[in-house]
Design goal:
23% strand, D-Amino Acid Oxidase, Chain A, domain 2, disordered N terminus, alpha+beta, 9 helices, 20 strands
């Protein structure tokens, strides 16, 4: 476990004013069932509880489990998001909530390392984001090659045309965060059940109950499905293949003995926009230097899929690692994991009401980039459920039918 960050280690961006946390009388009497205890469902449940609702949170294998898209050890948190201002705004709010939570829970969940962005020929994604993040108070420097080489001597900048450094960025402890959110939810009066759940028949009327895998049923006033890669299977006619789970591999390599240049505080989190998009982390908790390829993999079954790593993917990661970080050219593989993205056609999220069941909400489509947003997205989703806010049009379910599946420019399982 990391030690709590020093004051010099953590920077909280200037305050974002979230929508007012009202507590109408209806919220105090509402019972909301939330299916899925990952980054989206857990935070939604916690915010609903804090807004006065009675909340039951359900998950088949528990928060942060290894089948889930919120499992694993670490995720990036960063504010650069191209031209999509809402994401940068939500990241800013999420920074506040991550920091408040780890201070209150006395558990280090976020560490500021900065993020090194390395770009080949086209840096439009980053340049379009600079005015937005500047307005929101994030500090980003464009580095000259000589400055980048001086600051990060462990990196080979060959074939990198542009270098940016985002100061507030860093990493989050993913599995640990999911579990802490669920623990806090229960501490504040929420009920958690470890059981698989699915909706009973939905017609043009409110949903009446959830059918539970143990043979039981659960009735509530409102239902939120934040089921990650399983959401398409639960709603085959409405979502179906619009949310596509893909197989993604992650590797951890061991740094040479005595070489501390790959530790947090020396090596930042990083992303490399080359022929393929790779991203990675410093050696967190002595688990090894983490690297992953953002290229969308083949279709994957999150329940029963084979999670053994593939030789081709491993060799591709080794080749890149040895080229970009020469000291790791012969680094031993310490761990390998297979997880999944759940990709929407345009890479945007889903936060919307079911068109045929007014008391059902769907929250998902993380597309590999959603974890960092969990606290802010959960706040927004909870406000929508309790009619304190209206859903964002860009996150509508309706748009899914209008889109053809395509790759996103950037949206990785950080």
């Amino acid at each position: 476990m990391l030690s709590p960050p020093d004051a010099s280690d953590v920077t909280t961006p200037p305050s974002v004013n979230p929508q007012p946390k009202l507590t109408p009388s209806s919220a105090r009497n509402a019972h909301v069932a939330v299916v899925g205890a990952g980054a989206f469902g857990g935070w939604t449940a916690l915010h609903l509880r804090r807004m006065g609702a009675r909340v039951t949170l359900l998950d088949a294998w528990g928060p942060g489990n290894s089948r889930s898209s919120s499992g694993g050890e670490s995720r990036v948190i960063r504010g650069l998001y191209g031209r999509d201002r809402i994401y940068s705004l939500w990241v800013k709010r999420a920074f506040e909530l991550w920091q408040e939570s780890q201070d209150s829970w006395k558990t280090p969940l976020y560490r500021r390392t900065g993020m090194l962005w390395m770009v080949g020929e086209n840096d439009a994604y980053l340049r379009e984001s600079l005015p937005i993040v500047k307005e929101l108070g994030f500090r980003v420097d464009q580095l000259e090659r000589s400055d980048a080489e001086r600051r990060f001597p462990q990196v080979n900048f060959e074939d990198v045309e542009s270098q940016y450094f985002e100061h507030e960025a860093g990493y989050l402890k993913a599995r640990q965060a999911c579990r802490k959110v669920c623990e806090q939810f229960e501490r504040e009066g929420g009920e958690f059940q470890r059981v698989a759940a699915k909706p009973s028949a939905i017609g043009s009327k409110p949903l009446r109950q959830l059918d539970l895998a143990d043979g039981g049923h659960l009735s509530a006033d409102q239902y939120v499905f934040a089921c990650g890669p399983w959401i398409g299977g639960l709603f085959p006619d409405l979502i179906g293949r619009s949310i596509r789970p893909t197989r993604q591999e992650v590797y951890y390599f061991g740094a040479p003995f005595g070489d501390r240049s790959f530790e947090p505080g020396t090596l930042p989190v990083w992303g490399d926009f080359g022929e393929r998009m790779f991203y990675g982390f410093p050696d967190i908790d002595q688990r090894g230097v983490k690297i992953a390829d953002d290229t969308r993999g083949p279709d994957f079954d999150p329940t029963d899929g084979d999670r053994a790593p593939s030789q081709d993917s491993l060799e591709r990661a080794r080749e890149f690692l040895g080229r970009r970080f020469p000291a790791l050219r012969a680094a031993p593989l310490l761990e390998a994991r297979v997880c999944q993205y759940e990709n929407s056609p345009d890479g945007h999220l889903i936060v919307d009401r079911h068109p045929e069941a007014e008391n059902v909400w769907l929250v998902g489509g993380g597309s590999g980039h959603g974890f960092k947003l969990g606290p802010a997205l959960g706040e927004h989703a909870a406000q929508c459920v309790l009619e304190m806010a209206t859903p964002e049009p860009m996150f509508s379910i309706k748009r899914l039918a209008e889109l053809k599946t395509r790759s996103t420019q950037f949206g990785h399982k950080e």
